[in-house]
Write a structure and sequence with these properties.
The protein is an alpha+beta fold. It contains two helices and three strands. It folds into two domains: 43 residues, no CATH class; 32 residues, no CATH class. It is flat and about 40 Å long.
């Protein structure tokens, strides 16, 4: 099941975490576009499950995220080779 939907010029894109990929979907409905646009206008809210991620304020979290991204990129590169 897709996790996150994005919209650009009315065309839908879906992040599928099962496949670690973004795939193009068919045209989104007006209701889907409004839902996504409304979410884009909401401020980001940090909490204990989603703390602020700033290399100056939280260097340990930043380093951990960068290591995770590097590992993910290595795995994706191996899949594409």
């Amino acid at each position: 099941m897709p996790d996150v939907k994005y919209v650009l010029d009315g065309m839908g894109f879906v992040w599928d975490s099962d496949k670690d990929a973004i795939k193009l979907e068919t045209q989104l409905t007006e209701a889907q576009i409004r839902e996504i646009e409304a979410a884009q206008n909401k401020p980001a809210v940090e909490d204990e499950d989603c703390p602020e991620l700033d290399p100056q304020k939280t260097p340990e979290l930043w380093d951990e995220m960068m290591k995770s991204l590097a590992e993910r990129n290595r795995k994706m590169a191996r899949r594409m080779a």
